[in-house]
Amino acid sequence: MKRHLVSTADLSRDDALLILDTAEELAHLSGRSVKKLPTLRGRTVVNLFFEDSTRTKTSFEVAEKRLSADVINFSAKGSSVSKGESLKDTALTLQAMGADAVVIRHHASGAPARLAGSDWLHGSVINAGDGTHEHPTQALLDAFTIRRHLNPGTGHDLAGRRVAIVGDVLHSRVARSNVHLLTTLGAEVTFVAPPTLLPIGIENWPCQVSYDLDAVLPKTDALMMLRVQRERMNAAFFPTEREYSRRYGMNGIRMAQLPEHAIVMHPGPMVRGMEITAEVADSPRCTAVEQVANGVSVRMAVLYLLLGGAVFADAPADASRTDSPEAAK
Predict the structure, then answer these.
(1) Residue 318 pLDDT more than 50?
(2) Residue 35 appears among annotated catalytic residues
């Protein structure tokens, strides 16, 4: 693997499978009474969040602590950033404190890439979401969830699986990261959205596009619903919430059109009654809560491979090592 994780477009098929397989091994930790590994003992990981977050921030913090890292949570609110400090000066401060890795969420697209490409930090940079650009660990946990349900077992990709991503694609970093990763793993991706919520140039993306959700459902293995991101909208992109929900919302009637094995996904937070009804959200076929749990395992795998397990990128895990995923079984 590379030193940073900024975009899923940077991951080869082997890189992606390495992360997913490592996450599968680390997932066994959740069933143990003692869930910690000493892998990152003595390493310092900074969670640098310029945007509000519940699932991602908490998930990274749990993952870091389960790997025994020293964790520093840095919020833009109440810090020098609110006084006008630049990203560069913040990064230099973290470097002076000896940060081995920085997990960054930023409202500006490209901020993690700028940090990774600079000489401000010597440690690894992990993108936890930047503007409307990408959210690579969310895509990895989504792929992990799909594989567990449809292609279980290590070493398996998603070849031939059909994934439909529905809703506000225009403002979704989750959609962008997923289309790169899922196609790398062999899946066929279809975006379903009104024309106003699709980005310019989408015809050049490795995906299909549909405006008709009902036509796509019968041939879908995994259906990923996206939240309408009103906080990023500066205009009216659809007539009314009711009209959007009627055409692109997931309900019980539509869920019945899916193949029996298909799953319904959501990266959260869900707006019940808008893009998904309570009937679907609370259904056994909805993996939203499972995705949160899987996110801890996937983020542990990313941290493990970037900071503590570089040897495992080139060689099988040594089960005799107490800090290896195999030893956690």
Answers:
(1) no
(2) no
Report residue 77 as tokens: 């609110």
Q: Tell me which of 135, 147, 176, 266 is the catalytic residue.
A: 135
pTM of the model: 0.90
Q: Are 161 and 188 in contact (CB under 8 A)?
A: yes
Beta bridge partners of 263: 222
- Superfamily of the domain at 136-287: Aspartate/ornithine carbamoyltransferase (3.40.50.1370)
Q: Is 90 labeled as catalytic in the residue annotation?
A: no
pLDDT value of residue 83: 55
Active site residue 266: no
Check 55, 107, 156, 247 and give the catalytic one: 55
105 is catalytic: yes
pLDDT, position 313: 36
Token pair 């962008």 is found at 176
Q: What residue spans of the chain are helical by DSSP H?
A: 13-26, 55-66, 87-96, 111-116, 136-150, 173-184, 213-216, 241-248, 252-255, 278-281, 288-303
Give yes or no on whether 8-134+290-328 and 136-287 have one common fold: yes
Tell me how far apart the alpha carbons of residues 203 and 297 are, in angstroms, rounded to a whole number. Answer: 34
What pLDDT digit, counting tens, does each position of 93-144 carry? Answer: 999 989 999 999 999 999 999 999 999 999 999 999 999 999 999 999 999 9
Going by C-alpha positions, the residue among 292, 301, 266, 300 that lies closest to residue 56 is 292
Given a cut of 60, is residue 148 above it in pLDDT?
Answer: yes
Is residue 57 within 8 A of residue 180, CB to CB? The reply is no
pLDDT for res 34: 83
> So what CATH class is 8-134+290-328?
alpha beta
User: Annotated catalytic residue: which of 22, 39, 44, 56?
Assistant: 56
190 is catalytic: no
Q: Which residues pair with 102 in a beta bridge?
A: 46, 125
pLDDT tops 50 at residue 322: no
* Domain ranges, ordered by start, for the chain: 8-134+290-328, 136-287
Residue of 43, 57, 66, 105 with catalytic role: 105
